[in-house]
Amino acid sequence: MVDKQKIETYNNLNHWQNFRLRLVGEGILVGVFSGCVVGFFRFALNYADAWREQLYNFLSGVSIIYVLGIIALFLCIAFVLSRLVAYEPLSAGSGIPQVKGNILGLYKTVWWRIILSKLLGGILGIGAGLSLGREGPAIQLGAMTGQGFSRFLGRTRMEERYLISSGAGAGLAAAFNAPLAGVIFTLEELHKNFSVVVLLPSLAAALTATIISRLFFGQNTIFLFPDMSRLPVQYFPYLALLGICLGLFGAFFNYCLIKSADFYKLSIFKNNFMRIALPLMVAIPLGFYLPQVLAGGNQLVDALVTMDFSLQVLLVLVVCKFVFTMLSYGCGVPGGFFLPMLVIGALTGNIIGSILVDVGLLESYYRIHVIIFAMAGFFSASVRAPITGIILIMEMTASFKHLVPLAIVAVFSYVVAELCHSKPIYDSLLQKALAKDKANAQTMEKKCTRNVIELSVESGSFIEGKMIKNIPWPEHTLLVDVKRGENDIVPSGDTKIIAGDYLYVLTDTENCQRVRELVEK
Q1: Which end of the chain has less neighbouring CB within 10 Å, N or C?
Q2: Is the dihedral of CA 340, 346, 352, 358 positive or negative?
Q3: Which 3 state secondary structure label does DSSP give 510?
Q4: DSSP states of 280-343 as a string?
């Protein structure tokens, strides 16, 4: 089997154009399946949201006995969620760090178990009101659909990674009706390079998944913002201030999110059931008195546009949404923080915009603009993927006139977060997961050791300008192909590596990260 994989891999590299074209066709099919899976997930969450709203409306006018009934129901949900996480640990949390680890060869996954556990767990947790988003689960559902498609066709591990990436981008596109953001997320966050062989199938999958999604949910954007005029240039200096504030808050958000799991290590939490039960019990009073902070919260962003909240109310909302998100994500149930993060950014932008309006520095009409810009800035500070953030917010709000101010805020928030030495949140979560649970992280896959990985040589990396024979490759590592633009270079010891080369390296799985650091850092 290993020899067959090697032969097929070399055949793909030697027939590169045909391989890329085949990936486009496979990307379309992955997009169809991912769009259907994520579409079902969205449909179930919409139904759960409507059910939850009706439930709290009903309970507000009945006796306490019914409230005890919902407590019992939520405890049952906590038990089911604890069993699901125990059954498939890789379905816990956002799912995006697991996808990154899967692409890097750090996880050995059973795709169908993750899909089943993620679907059921996400529907129960988010449906019950936990402050979690659908985008992380959607990305992992799409990625596992891509892996299942690859396994069904018997593809090589190299090709499987491209299909996993395509499925992940399709999942984000289907979740938010945002095909371009799905593609850029795959390139900027998952692979951290703009390889054409990643771009083409990801674009095909994202476009196909978006079409499937729009067939079921229509063509409306996720956030319902009115058509707005461009921000006048005289207000641009305030964008720098907005970016600085968001960079600081984004770094704090990352710190708290990483530490949120530590809270559940306290001795009072004896098991996973007790950890999950706490945020579910907190969700009940919030459902009665502050339902806006439950679940993902995209309706809250819409409300910020149509309603004029006082500064005090905004502060209460952002604090409660922030704290409840930490409680919800830290307990480890299936669900992401992508959408809650955007909601927190929108609330922060509304607060800053309202202050600027109150002190006479900004016309009230442009307060909504600040909300939009703040979402991109907060995303950029936390995830450290500014291009994805800019395109995502433009697609989610249909604010295509505001590229320049979005970019200004995203860049300032990115730089400030870097100066705070805050690491990208998904990278941090992946490293923490690998350090926590070596049983699930297959960093030492002894029986499945050989993988071909694609790497882009970055300017200033260790190997730039070096001959292949002078590079200290890890043991059992072979450079099998070098692609420079549209040209193939047969590697030899005297071949000099330059920035922009794409290297295809055969190595042990345990050496993948070391090889990546040689090439990209």
Answers
A1: N
A2: negative
A3: helix
A4: HHHHHHHHHH-GGGSSS-HHHHHHHHHS---HHHHHHHHHHHHHHHHHHHHTT-B-BSHHHHHH
d(CA 176, CA 275): 30
CATH code of 2-217, in short, is 1.10.3080.10
For the domain covering 233-266+286-433, report its CATH number. 1.10.3080.10
Tell me the per-residue pLDDT of 132-150, one tens digit each, with 9 for 90 and over: 988 889 999 999 999 999 9
What is the mean pLDDT for each group of 10 consecutive residues in the chain (521 residues)? 58 66 90 94 90 84 79 92 90 86 80 93 91 89 93 84 91 90 87 78 93 86 80 91 94 92 86 91 90 86 85 92 93 89 93 91 88 93 90 85 91 94 87 66 46 72 76 75 72 77 73 70 63
Of 100, 108, 177, 77, nearest in space to 432 by CA:
100
**Rounded (5°) CA angle 512-518-521:** 115
